[in-house]
Amino acid sequence: MQTASDLNLSERKVLDIIWRLGPIARTDIGPLTSLSTMSVSRITRELADRGLLSEEVHRSGGRGQPSRPLIIKSDAACSAGVYFSSRGLQVGLIDLSGQLLAHDSVAVEASRPIDVARAAAERISYFCKQEGIPEEKIVGVGFALPGDFIADRKRLNAHAMFPGFRGNDLEAELQAGINKPVYVENDAASAALGERLLGVGQTINHFFFAHIGHGIGGGLVLDGRLYRGARGNAGIIGVQFPNDQPRPSGQDLFAFLQKNGVEASDFEDLEFLRPQTCPPLKTWIARASAQLRERLWITARILDPNAIIIGGRLPFHILQEVVARVDDETFCNEGVDLPRPKVFASSLGPLAGVVGAAVLPLYSRYFISD
């Protein structure tokens, strides 16, 4: 009997469409996948037999048979994700339809990968008991790592705040602390993936995701797929902002606020700050937005995406302020009528990281992958 990991490319294409656009009729899937009506019918029947799809009955009130659009069978599988902050971890659990079933912040004393994995495993077990989910339903755990990959993706040029993640085989070190398959990605790429499958990027095939976390990074989706590059580092825009100068990053924001008498050392501390009542925050937003605008203009002209999505760890109200300053009628307007990319705030907001991490196992096992 085949398992989910045995899915071929056509089956993955069909599942990907239903995941993002469902409920959807079989007749609408073919044109979106270049598959024949007969092939779509056969594939969807086989996927339903494996317990991955179900039909949702729609009645229009008229005569005849009701329509039966296809949806992902949400309880067929679950996966978990882990995302980092300076105070610990965000751990989340999603089902196969992408619904966030549970999430929480977890304090971790030690910073070794095995300790992080053990803390995550404990919280995932708690979620399963809380939600009544058998642990065998968990197909994997995704880790959105705070840094960029070196050479063979086993090593990480970790952010300075996470020195324990500079080992020689991070995936193996994480795997030693958890009894589920481990999937690793850098935090910006995983957030871009989450946005593609569950956020505003669901219907956008080409976009650049600017990720504001402790640092500043990016993820790239081309033709509907996460583009990782030769070494898994496509999208690094942080190099355009020297570390010894002001830059549009979380760490820079905390340092600026503290210098101006505002106590803030992590993103949770920003939830109740408003630029209207916090002049240092307003000043930082104006400066950081101008920096992002200039570099994203260049990035947009090099990559030619349909859209730029700005997200990461900033609270949604601050993110919206940044996007409003980046996106106006003059952005990417050279006066020669070139198409301008749309600019969006991440619809997942600060949850994009943990959702994106949780998506990693599902993406690898069920949907369009490398």
What is the topology?
Layout: H1 9-21, H2 26-33, H3 37-49, E1 53-55, E2 70-72, E3 78-85, E4 88-95, E5 100-106, H4 113-131, E6 138-145, E7 147-150, E8 155-158, H5 170-175, E9 182-186, H6 187-198, E10 207-212, E11 216-222, E12 225-227, H7 250-259, H8 279-303, E13 307-312, H9 316-326, E14 342-345, H10 352-366
Parallel strand pairs: 3-6, 6-9, 10-13, 13-14
Antiparallel strand pairs: 1-2, 3-4, 4-5, 7-8, 10-11, 11-12
Helix pairs in contact: 1-3, 2-3, 6-10, 8-9
Explain this structure to me?
There is one protein chain. The chain has 370 residues and is of the alpha/beta class. It has 10 helices and 14 strands. The strands form 4 sheets. Strands 5-4-3-6-9 form a 5-stranded mixed sheet, with helices on both faces. Helix 1 packs across helix 3 and helix 6 packs across helix 10. The chain is globular.
Q: Can you identify the CATH class of the largest domain?
A: Alpha Beta
The tally of domains stands at 3
Hey, roughly how much beta strand do the residues contain? 15-25%
What value does the average pLDDT take?
88
How do the strands of the widest beta sheet line up side by side?
Answer: 5-4-3-6-9
Largest sheet: 5 strands, mixed
- Give the number of helices: 10
CATH topology of the largest domain: Nucleotidyltransferase, domain 5
Secondary-structure element sequence? HHHEEEEEHEEEHEHEEEHHEHEH
| Shape designation | globular
- CATH H-level superfamily of the largest domain: ATPase, nucleotide binding domain
